[in-house]
Amino acid sequence: AKAQIGVTGLAVMGRNLARNLARNGFRVAVHNRTPERTRSLVAEHGDEGTFVATESMADFVAALERPRAVIVMVKAGGPTDAVIDELATLLEPGDIVVDCGNAHFADTQRREAALRRHGLHFVGTGVSGGEEGALHGPSIMPGGSEESYQKLGPIFEKIAAQVDGVPCCRHIGPDGAGHFVKMVHNGIEYADMQLIAEAYDLLRAGLGAEPAELAEIFREWNRGELESFLIEITGDVLAHTDASTGRPFVDLVRDQAEQKGTGRWTVQSALDLGIPITGIAEATFARSLSGHADQREAARRAFPGGGAKLKVDDRDTFVEDVRRALLASKIVAYAQGFDHISAGSREYDWNIDLGGTATIWRGGCIIRARFLDRIREAYDEQPDLSTLLVAPYFAEAVSAGVPSWRRVVAEAARAGVPAPAFSSSLAYFDALRAERLPAALIQGLRDNFGAHTYHRVDRPGTFHTLWAGDRSEVEA
Ligand code: NDP
Known about the structure:
The chain is α/β, with parallel strands linked by helices. The chain has helices at about 10-25, 35-45, 55-60, 80-90, 105-115, 130-135, 145-160, 175-205, 210-220, 230-240, 250, 260-275, 280-290, 295-300, 315-350, 355-360, 370-380, 390-415, 420-435, 440-450, and strands at about 5-10, 30, 50-55, 70, 95-100, 120-130, 140, 160-165, 165, 465, 475.
Protein backbone atom coordinates (compact mmCIF):
# COMPACT_ATOMS: atom_id res chain seq x y z
CA ALA A 1 0.00 0.00 0.00
CA LYS A 2 1.12 3.52 -0.62
CA ALA A 3 2.10 5.86 2.18
CA GLN A 4 -0.61 8.07 3.70
CA ILE A 5 1.74 10.96 4.30
CA GLY A 6 5.34 11.88 3.59
CA VAL A 7 8.04 13.78 5.45
CA THR A 8 10.98 15.38 3.68
CA GLY A 9 13.75 16.84 5.82
CA LEU A 10 14.81 14.35 8.46
CA ALA A 11 16.95 16.40 10.83
CA VAL A 12 15.82 16.29 14.44
CA MET A 13 12.35 17.79 13.93
CA GLY A 14 11.37 15.92 10.77
CA ARG A 15 12.75 12.66 12.09
CA ASN A 16 10.73 12.90 15.28
CA LEU A 17 7.57 13.96 13.46
CA ALA A 18 7.95 10.99 11.08
CA ARG A 19 8.42 8.63 14.05
CA ASN A 20 5.36 10.10 15.77
CA LEU A 21 3.31 9.50 12.61
CA ALA A 22 4.58 5.93 12.26
CA ARG A 23 4.01 5.15 15.96
CA ASN A 24 0.42 6.28 15.52
CA GLY A 25 -0.12 3.76 12.76
CA PHE A 26 0.29 5.95 9.67
CA ARG A 27 2.32 4.69 6.73
CA VAL A 28 5.00 7.36 6.29
CA ALA A 29 7.16 7.95 3.24
CA VAL A 30 10.44 9.52 4.31
CA HIS A 31 12.98 11.50 2.33
CA ASN A 32 16.01 13.66 2.98
CA ARG A 33 18.38 15.47 0.62
CA THR A 34 21.26 13.48 2.06
CA PRO A 35 19.96 9.87 1.93
CA GLU A 36 22.15 8.76 4.83
CA ARG A 37 19.71 10.40 7.24
CA THR A 38 16.81 8.46 5.73
CA ARG A 39 18.71 5.20 6.05
CA SER A 40 19.66 5.84 9.67
CA LEU A 41 16.08 6.71 10.58
CA VAL A 42 14.83 3.42 9.20
CA ALA A 43 17.76 1.46 10.64
CA GLU A 44 17.27 2.87 14.13
CA HIS A 45 13.51 3.20 14.32
CA GLY A 46 12.09 1.08 11.49
CA ASP A 47 10.41 -1.18 14.06
CA GLU A 48 8.23 1.66 15.38
CA GLY A 49 5.85 1.56 12.41
CA THR A 50 5.69 1.55 8.64
CA PHE A 51 8.31 3.74 6.97
CA VAL A 52 8.66 3.86 3.19
CA ALA A 53 12.24 4.98 2.65
CA THR A 54 12.94 6.85 -0.59
CA GLU A 55 16.08 8.39 -2.03
CA SER A 56 14.93 10.68 -4.85
CA MET A 57 12.21 13.28 -4.61
CA ALA A 58 10.46 11.59 -7.56
CA ASP A 59 10.37 8.24 -5.74
CA PHE A 60 9.17 10.00 -2.60
CA VAL A 61 6.24 11.58 -4.43
CA ALA A 62 5.45 8.31 -6.22
CA ALA A 63 5.28 6.49 -2.87
CA LEU A 64 2.31 8.56 -1.68
CA GLU A 65 -1.41 7.84 -2.01
CA ARG A 66 -3.52 10.60 -3.56
CA PRO A 67 -4.26 13.30 -2.74
CA ARG A 68 -0.65 13.35 -1.65
CA ALA A 69 0.29 15.05 1.60
CA VAL A 70 3.92 16.03 2.01
CA ILE A 71 5.37 17.56 5.17
CA VAL A 72 8.37 19.77 4.54
CA MET A 73 10.66 20.02 7.55
CA VAL A 74 13.86 21.53 6.15
CA LYS A 75 15.85 24.58 7.12
CA ALA A 76 13.66 27.70 7.12
CA GLY A 77 14.03 30.33 4.40
CA GLY A 78 15.75 29.58 1.07
CA PRO A 79 15.96 25.80 1.57
CA THR A 80 12.21 25.63 2.26
CA ASP A 81 11.50 27.58 -0.94
CA ALA A 82 13.83 25.31 -2.93
CA VAL A 83 12.13 22.14 -1.68
CA ILE A 84 8.64 23.56 -2.25
CA ASP A 85 9.57 24.57 -5.81
CA GLU A 86 10.89 21.10 -6.54
CA LEU A 87 7.77 19.47 -5.09
CA ALA A 88 5.51 21.76 -7.12
CA THR A 89 6.93 20.33 -10.34
CA LEU A 90 6.27 16.74 -9.22
CA LEU A 91 2.88 17.01 -7.51
CA GLU A 92 -0.57 17.09 -9.13
CA PRO A 93 -3.61 19.29 -8.55
CA GLY A 94 -5.29 18.51 -5.25
CA ASP A 95 -2.05 17.46 -3.55
CA ILE A 96 -1.01 19.11 -0.30
CA VAL A 97 2.32 20.59 0.74
CA VAL A 98 2.66 21.17 4.49
CA ASP A 99 5.40 23.45 5.82
CA CYS A 100 5.92 22.59 9.48
CA GLY A 101 9.02 24.77 9.79
CA ASN A 102 9.17 28.13 11.50
CA ALA A 103 8.14 30.30 8.56
CA HIS A 104 7.08 33.93 8.72
CA PHE A 105 3.35 34.10 8.01
CA ALA A 106 3.90 36.53 5.13
CA ASP A 107 6.18 33.95 3.44
CA THR A 108 3.44 31.39 3.99
CA GLN A 109 0.88 33.69 2.36
CA ARG A 110 3.21 34.14 -0.61
CA ARG A 111 3.89 30.40 -0.95
CA GLU A 112 0.22 29.55 -0.59
CA ALA A 113 -0.76 31.93 -3.36
CA ALA A 114 1.97 30.54 -5.64
CA LEU A 115 1.01 26.90 -5.08
CA ARG A 116 -2.70 27.66 -5.43
CA ARG A 117 -1.95 28.73 -9.01
CA HIS A 118 -0.70 25.18 -9.62
CA GLY A 119 -3.86 23.75 -8.05
CA LEU A 120 -1.90 22.65 -4.99
CA HIS A 121 -2.82 23.20 -1.36
CA PHE A 122 -0.15 24.83 0.74
CA VAL A 123 -0.57 24.45 4.47
CA GLY A 124 1.73 26.56 6.65
CA THR A 125 1.60 24.78 9.98
CA GLY A 126 2.88 26.00 13.31
CA VAL A 127 4.34 23.21 15.40
CA SER A 128 5.28 23.87 18.99
CA GLY A 129 6.95 21.67 21.53
CA GLY A 130 10.47 21.31 20.23
CA GLU A 131 11.93 17.92 19.42
CA GLU A 132 10.29 16.19 22.38
CA GLY A 133 6.90 17.55 21.34
CA ALA A 134 7.42 16.47 17.74
CA LEU A 135 8.00 12.91 18.94
CA HIS A 136 5.48 12.57 21.76
CA GLY A 137 2.72 14.99 20.75
CA PRO A 138 3.15 18.64 19.77
CA SER A 139 0.65 21.45 19.61
CA ILE A 140 -0.20 21.79 15.91
CA MET A 141 -1.54 24.94 14.25
CA PRO A 142 -2.36 24.29 10.59
CA GLY A 143 -3.36 27.09 8.23
CA GLY A 144 -4.36 26.56 4.60
CA SER A 145 -7.62 25.50 3.01
CA GLU A 146 -10.56 23.74 4.68
CA GLU A 147 -10.26 21.07 2.01
CA SER A 148 -6.67 20.26 2.94
CA TYR A 149 -7.71 19.93 6.58
CA GLN A 150 -10.13 17.14 5.65
CA LYS A 151 -7.12 15.02 4.78
CA LEU A 152 -4.67 16.38 7.37
CA GLY A 153 -7.03 16.84 10.32
CA PRO A 154 -7.47 13.17 11.25
CA ILE A 155 -3.71 12.59 10.97
CA PHE A 156 -2.57 15.68 12.86
CA GLU A 157 -5.22 15.35 15.55
CA LYS A 158 -4.00 11.83 16.22
CA ILE A 159 -0.30 12.72 16.57
CA ALA A 160 -0.90 15.94 18.55
CA ALA A 161 -0.77 16.20 22.33
CA GLN A 162 -4.12 15.31 23.94
CA VAL A 163 -5.60 17.13 26.94
CA ASP A 164 -8.79 15.78 28.53
CA GLY A 165 -9.28 13.72 25.37
CA VAL A 166 -9.14 16.84 23.17
CA PRO A 167 -6.35 17.02 20.57
CA CYS A 168 -4.06 20.05 20.64
CA CYS A 169 -4.65 20.65 16.96
CA ARG A 170 -7.34 22.43 15.00
CA HIS A 171 -7.62 24.20 11.69
CA ILE A 172 -6.69 27.80 12.45
CA GLY A 173 -7.74 29.48 9.21
CA PRO A 174 -6.69 30.10 5.61
CA ASP A 175 -3.20 30.67 4.17
CA GLY A 176 -0.83 32.13 6.81
CA ALA A 177 -3.16 31.87 9.83
CA GLY A 178 -1.38 28.86 11.33
CA HIS A 179 2.07 30.39 11.18
CA PHE A 180 0.69 33.70 12.46
CA VAL A 181 -0.80 32.03 15.52
CA LYS A 182 2.44 30.11 16.10
CA MET A 183 4.32 33.41 15.89
CA VAL A 184 2.12 35.01 18.55
CA HIS A 185 2.45 31.85 20.65
CA ASN A 186 6.21 32.41 20.61
CA GLY A 187 5.75 36.08 21.44
CA ILE A 188 3.66 35.12 24.48
CA GLU A 189 6.39 32.62 25.36
CA TYR A 190 8.91 35.48 25.38
CA ALA A 191 6.68 37.51 27.71
CA ASP A 192 6.00 34.54 29.97
CA MET A 193 9.72 33.79 30.32
CA GLN A 194 10.65 37.42 30.94
CA LEU A 195 8.00 37.68 33.67
CA ILE A 196 9.26 34.50 35.31
CA ALA A 197 12.83 35.81 35.11
CA GLU A 198 11.80 39.12 36.71
CA ALA A 199 9.91 37.30 39.45
CA TYR A 200 13.03 35.23 40.16
CA ASP A 201 15.21 38.35 40.20
CA LEU A 202 12.86 40.17 42.58
CA LEU A 203 12.60 37.19 44.89
CA ARG A 204 16.36 36.87 44.96
CA ALA A 205 16.89 40.58 45.63
CA GLY A 206 14.19 40.53 48.27
CA LEU A 207 14.97 37.31 50.09
CA GLY A 208 18.69 37.05 49.44
CA ALA A 209 18.02 33.35 49.04
CA GLU A 210 19.97 30.82 47.01
CA PRO A 211 18.49 29.61 43.70
CA ALA A 212 17.74 26.18 45.19
CA GLU A 213 15.53 27.80 47.84
CA LEU A 214 13.81 29.90 45.18
CA ALA A 215 13.17 26.70 43.21
CA GLU A 216 10.92 25.60 46.06
CA ILE A 217 8.83 28.76 45.68
CA PHE A 218 8.30 28.06 41.98
CA ARG A 219 7.41 24.45 42.75
CA GLU A 220 4.85 25.70 45.22
CA TRP A 221 3.46 28.15 42.66
CA ASN A 222 3.20 25.32 40.16
CA ARG A 223 0.53 23.76 42.37
CA GLY A 224 -1.78 26.77 41.97
CA GLU A 225 -3.15 29.15 39.34
CA LEU A 226 0.30 29.61 37.80
CA GLU A 227 0.66 25.90 37.04
CA SER A 228 2.44 25.66 33.71
CA PHE A 229 5.30 23.97 31.93
CA LEU A 230 7.50 27.07 32.16
CA ILE A 231 7.00 27.47 35.93
CA GLU A 232 7.70 23.75 36.34
CA ILE A 233 11.02 23.87 34.47
CA THR A 234 11.97 27.09 36.27
CA GLY A 235 11.98 25.00 39.46
CA ASP A 236 14.22 22.44 37.75
CA VAL A 237 16.69 24.97 36.35
CA LEU A 238 16.96 26.90 39.64
CA ALA A 239 17.50 23.70 41.61
CA HIS A 240 20.24 22.51 39.26
CA THR A 241 23.83 22.54 40.55
CA ASP A 242 26.80 22.85 38.23
CA ALA A 243 28.77 19.61 38.38
CA SER A 244 32.21 21.12 37.83
CA THR A 245 32.01 23.88 40.44
CA GLY A 246 29.22 22.82 42.78
CA ARG A 247 27.68 26.27 42.38
CA PRO A 248 24.10 27.05 41.32
CA PHE A 249 23.87 26.44 37.58
CA VAL A 250 21.99 29.70 36.97
CA ASP A 251 24.91 31.69 38.43
CA LEU A 252 27.31 30.23 35.89
CA VAL A 253 25.29 30.98 32.77
CA ARG A 254 26.24 34.17 30.94
CA ASP A 255 23.39 36.67 31.40
CA GLN A 256 22.83 37.46 27.73
CA ALA A 257 19.59 36.05 26.32
CA GLU A 258 19.57 34.98 22.70
CA GLN A 259 16.70 34.84 20.25
CA LYS A 260 15.91 33.28 16.93
CA GLY A 261 13.52 35.97 15.73
CA THR A 262 9.91 35.01 16.39
CA GLY A 263 9.62 37.58 19.21
CA ARG A 264 10.86 40.24 16.81
CA TRP A 265 8.39 39.10 14.13
CA THR A 266 5.56 39.31 16.66
CA VAL A 267 6.45 42.86 17.66
CA GLN A 268 6.92 43.95 14.04
CA SER A 269 3.52 42.57 13.10
CA ALA A 270 1.86 44.17 16.13
CA LEU A 271 3.33 47.54 15.17
CA ASP A 272 1.89 47.10 11.67
CA LEU A 273 -1.51 46.21 13.07
CA GLY A 274 -1.42 48.91 15.77
CA ILE A 275 -1.84 46.48 18.67
CA PRO A 276 -0.04 47.40 21.91
CA ILE A 277 1.59 44.11 22.88
CA THR A 278 3.75 45.94 25.42
CA GLY A 279 4.60 42.84 27.47
CA ILE A 280 5.90 40.91 24.48
CA ALA A 281 7.78 43.98 23.24
CA GLU A 282 9.42 44.58 26.64
CA ALA A 283 10.40 40.93 26.78
CA THR A 284 11.93 41.06 23.32
CA PHE A 285 13.81 44.28 24.08
CA ALA A 286 14.94 42.93 27.45
CA ARG A 287 16.69 40.10 25.60
CA SER A 288 18.31 42.62 23.25
CA LEU A 289 19.42 44.79 26.17
CA SER A 290 20.99 41.84 27.94
CA GLY A 291 23.13 41.21 24.87
CA HIS A 292 24.63 44.72 24.76
CA ALA A 293 27.61 43.79 26.90
CA ASP A 294 29.69 46.89 26.08
CA GLN A 295 26.93 49.33 27.03
CA ARG A 296 26.20 47.37 30.19
CA GLU A 297 29.86 47.45 31.16
CA ALA A 298 30.09 51.20 30.50
CA ALA A 299 26.92 51.90 32.47
CA ARG A 300 28.06 49.73 35.39
CA ARG A 301 31.23 51.80 35.59
CA ALA A 302 29.43 55.15 35.25
CA PHE A 303 26.64 54.30 37.68
CA PRO A 304 27.96 51.91 40.32
CA GLY A 305 25.72 50.59 43.08
CA GLY A 306 23.59 48.10 41.19
CA GLY A 307 22.66 44.81 42.78
CA ALA A 308 20.51 46.51 45.40
CA LYS A 309 18.34 44.57 47.82
CA LEU A 310 14.58 44.97 48.11
CA LYS A 311 13.15 45.94 51.44
CA VAL A 312 11.09 43.01 52.69
CA ASP A 313 9.22 43.20 56.00
CA ASP A 314 7.52 39.86 55.88
CA ARG A 315 8.80 37.00 53.77
CA ASP A 316 5.48 35.29 53.06
CA THR A 317 3.70 38.53 52.20
CA PHE A 318 6.47 39.44 49.80
CA VAL A 319 6.45 36.05 48.07
CA GLU A 320 2.68 36.27 47.71
CA ASP A 321 2.99 39.83 46.34
CA VAL A 322 5.42 38.66 43.68
CA ARG A 323 3.15 35.72 42.82
CA ARG A 324 0.12 37.95 42.36
CA ALA A 325 2.10 40.51 40.38
CA LEU A 326 3.37 37.70 38.16
CA LEU A 327 -0.14 36.37 37.58
CA ALA A 328 -1.57 39.82 36.81
CA SER A 329 1.30 40.63 34.42
CA LYS A 330 0.90 37.25 32.75
CA ILE A 331 -2.81 37.93 32.23
CA VAL A 332 -1.86 41.20 30.54
CA ALA A 333 0.61 39.39 28.25
CA TYR A 334 -2.01 36.83 27.20
CA ALA A 335 -4.70 39.49 26.77
CA GLN A 336 -2.34 41.38 24.47
CA GLY A 337 -1.40 38.24 22.55
CA PHE A 338 -5.05 37.36 21.96
CA ASP A 339 -5.73 40.96 20.87
CA HIS A 340 -2.95 40.52 18.36
CA ILE A 341 -4.43 37.29 16.99
CA SER A 342 -7.83 38.90 16.81
CA ALA A 343 -6.42 41.87 14.88
CA GLY A 344 -4.50 39.60 12.48
CA SER A 345 -7.64 37.58 11.93
CA ARG A 346 -9.61 40.71 11.01
CA GLU A 347 -6.86 42.17 8.83
CA TYR A 348 -6.32 39.00 6.81
CA ASP A 349 -9.88 37.60 6.91
CA TRP A 350 -8.91 34.45 8.76
CA ASN A 351 -11.89 34.07 11.05
CA ILE A 352 -9.75 32.59 13.84
CA ASP A 353 -11.56 31.05 16.81
CA LEU A 354 -9.77 32.59 19.81
CA GLY A 355 -11.13 30.16 22.40
CA GLY A 356 -10.24 27.26 20.12
CA THR A 357 -6.69 28.57 19.87
CA ALA A 358 -6.41 28.57 23.67
CA THR A 359 -7.62 24.95 23.63
CA ILE A 360 -4.78 23.70 21.44
CA TRP A 361 -2.12 25.42 23.54
CA ARG A 362 -3.13 23.44 26.63
CA GLY A 363 -0.74 20.63 25.76
CA GLY A 364 2.34 19.94 23.68
CA CYS A 365 3.61 23.50 23.48
CA ILE A 366 5.97 25.55 25.61
CA ILE A 367 3.29 27.87 27.05
CA ARG A 368 1.01 25.01 28.08
CA ALA A 369 -0.73 25.99 31.28
CA ARG A 370 -3.77 25.45 33.43
CA PHE A 371 -4.65 29.09 32.74
CA LEU A 372 -5.52 28.35 29.08
CA ASP A 373 -8.73 26.59 30.10
CA ARG A 374 -9.86 29.89 31.62
CA ILE A 375 -9.13 31.67 28.34
CA ARG A 376 -11.23 29.17 26.40
CA GLU A 377 -14.06 29.56 28.90
CA ALA A 378 -13.86 33.34 28.63
CA TYR A 379 -14.30 33.23 24.85
CA ASP A 380 -16.95 30.50 25.07
CA GLU A 381 -19.01 32.73 27.34
CA GLN A 382 -18.42 35.86 25.30
CA PRO A 383 -17.02 35.36 21.80
CA ASP A 384 -16.81 39.12 21.17
CA LEU A 385 -14.93 39.85 24.40
CA SER A 386 -13.17 43.23 24.03
CA THR A 387 -10.18 42.16 26.14
CA LEU A 388 -9.44 39.06 28.21
CA LEU A 389 -8.70 41.37 31.13
CA VAL A 390 -12.41 41.96 31.72
CA ALA A 391 -13.54 38.33 31.55
CA PRO A 392 -14.75 37.43 35.08
CA TYR A 393 -11.97 35.04 36.09
CA PHE A 394 -9.21 37.33 34.86
CA ALA A 395 -10.82 40.53 36.12
CA GLU A 396 -10.99 38.95 39.57
CA ALA A 397 -7.38 37.74 39.50
CA VAL A 398 -6.16 41.15 38.35
CA SER A 399 -8.27 43.07 40.88
CA ALA A 400 -7.07 40.82 43.67
CA GLY A 401 -3.50 41.35 42.53
CA VAL A 402 -3.42 45.12 42.05
CA PRO A 403 -2.17 46.10 45.53
CA SER A 404 0.58 43.46 45.32
CA TRP A 405 1.43 44.50 41.79
CA ARG A 406 1.89 48.13 42.88
CA ARG A 407 3.95 47.21 45.93
CA VAL A 408 6.29 45.02 43.90
CA VAL A 409 6.75 47.49 41.03
CA ALA A 410 7.19 50.44 43.42
CA GLU A 411 9.70 48.57 45.56
CA ALA A 412 11.61 47.38 42.49
CA ALA A 413 11.83 50.98 41.22
CA ARG A 414 12.88 52.26 44.65
CA ALA A 415 15.63 49.68 45.02
CA GLY A 416 16.75 49.83 41.40
CA VAL A 417 15.92 46.29 40.36
CA PRO A 418 14.82 46.29 36.71
CA ALA A 419 11.36 44.83 36.20
CA PRO A 420 10.43 46.10 32.72
CA ALA A 421 7.69 43.58 31.97
CA PHE A 422 6.09 43.78 35.43
CA SER A 423 6.04 47.57 35.37
CA SER A 424 4.97 48.02 31.77
CA SER A 425 2.15 45.52 32.27
CA LEU A 426 0.94 47.50 35.26
CA ALA A 427 1.16 50.72 33.22
CA TYR A 428 -0.86 49.06 30.43
CA PHE A 429 -3.54 48.09 32.94
CA ASP A 430 -3.64 51.58 34.43
CA ALA A 431 -3.75 53.18 30.98
CA LEU A 432 -6.62 50.97 29.82
CA ARG A 433 -8.71 51.81 32.87
CA ALA A 434 -7.85 55.53 33.05
CA GLU A 435 -10.77 57.97 32.95
CA ARG A 436 -8.76 60.36 30.81
CA LEU A 437 -5.48 59.80 29.04
CA PRO A 438 -2.96 62.52 28.19
CA ALA A 439 -3.54 61.49 24.57
CA ALA A 440 -5.72 64.62 24.55
CA LEU A 441 -2.61 66.75 24.99
CA ILE A 442 -0.84 64.82 22.25
CA GLN A 443 -3.71 65.62 19.89
CA GLY A 444 -3.39 69.30 20.89
CA LEU A 445 0.33 69.27 20.15
CA ARG A 446 -0.18 67.56 16.82
CA ASP A 447 -2.76 70.13 15.87
CA ASN A 448 -0.46 72.94 16.99
CA PHE A 449 2.62 71.97 15.00
CA GLY A 450 1.08 70.10 12.13
CA ALA A 451 -2.60 71.09 11.82
CA HIS A 452 -3.43 67.41 12.31
CA THR A 453 -6.91 68.29 13.71
CA TYR A 454 -8.73 66.82 16.71
CA HIS A 455 -12.15 65.70 17.87
CA ARG A 456 -13.99 67.29 20.80
CA VAL A 457 -15.64 65.54 23.70
CA ASP A 458 -18.69 67.79 23.61
CA ARG A 459 -19.76 67.81 19.96
CA PRO A 460 -19.15 65.83 16.75
CA GLY A 461 -16.91 67.01 13.94
CA THR A 462 -13.22 67.47 13.18
CA PHE A 463 -11.57 70.67 14.35
CA HIS A 464 -8.41 72.74 14.01
CA THR A 465 -7.33 75.71 16.11
CA LEU A 466 -5.62 78.58 14.27
CA TRP A 467 -2.60 78.46 16.58
CA ALA A 468 -0.50 80.95 14.60
CA GLY A 469 -3.46 83.29 14.15
CA ASP A 470 -6.15 84.43 16.54
CA ARG A 471 -6.50 80.92 18.07
CA SER A 472 -10.07 80.62 17.00
CA GLU A 473 -11.35 77.17 16.16
CA VAL A 474 -12.41 76.14 12.67
CA GLU A 475 -14.18 73.03 11.52
CA ALA A 476 -11.81 71.02 9.33
P1 NDP B 1 17.35 22.27 10.38
O1 NDP B 1 16.69 23.55 10.45
O2 NDP B 1 18.70 22.10 11.00
O3 NDP B 1 17.48 21.83 8.84
C1 NDP B 1 18.16 20.64 8.46
C2 NDP B 1 17.36 19.90 7.44
O4 NDP B 1 17.12 20.74 6.29
C3 NDP B 1 18.08 18.69 6.95
O5 NDP B 1 17.13 17.68 6.69
C4 NDP B 1 18.72 19.20 5.68
O6 NDP B 1 19.04 18.20 4.77
C5 NDP B 1 17.63 20.05 5.14
N1 NDP B 1 18.08 21.03 4.15
C6 NDP B 1 18.84 22.12 4.37
N2 NDP B 1 19.04 22.78 3.23
C7 NDP B 1 18.38 22.09 2.25
C8 NDP B 1 18.20 22.29 0.87
N3 NDP B 1 18.72 23.36 0.25
N4 NDP B 1 17.48 21.38 0.19
C9 NDP B 1 16.94 20.32 0.82
N5 NDP B 1 17.06 20.10 2.14
C10 NDP B 1 17.79 20.97 2.84
O7 NDP B 1 16.40 21.09 10.92
P2 NDP B 1 15.48 21.05 12.22
O8 NDP B 1 14.94 19.68 12.26
O9 NDP B 1 16.19 21.58 13.40
O10 NDP B 1 14.32 22.07 11.90
C11 NDP B 1 13.46 21.91 10.77
C12 NDP B 1 12.46 23.05 10.74
O11 NDP B 1 11.73 23.05 11.94
C13 NDP B 1 13.07 24.45 10.64
O12 NDP B 1 12.23 25.26 9.86
C14 NDP B 1 13.09 24.95 12.05
O13 NDP B 1 12.98 26.37 12.12
C15 NDP B 1 11.86 24.29 12.61
N6 NDP B 1 11.99 24.02 14.02
C16 NDP B 1 10.90 24.03 14.75
C17 NDP B 1 10.94 23.77 16.07
C18 NDP B 1 9.69 23.76 16.79
O14 NDP B 1 9.65 23.58 18.00
N7 NDP B 1 8.61 23.96 16.07
C19 NDP B 1 12.16 23.47 16.81
C20 NDP B 1 13.26 23.41 15.95
C21 NDP B 1 13.15 23.68 14.61
P3 NDP B 1 20.51 17.51 4.78
O15 NDP B 1 20.41 16.43 5.81
O16 NDP B 1 20.67 17.00 3.41
O17 NDP B 1 21.50 18.57 5.15
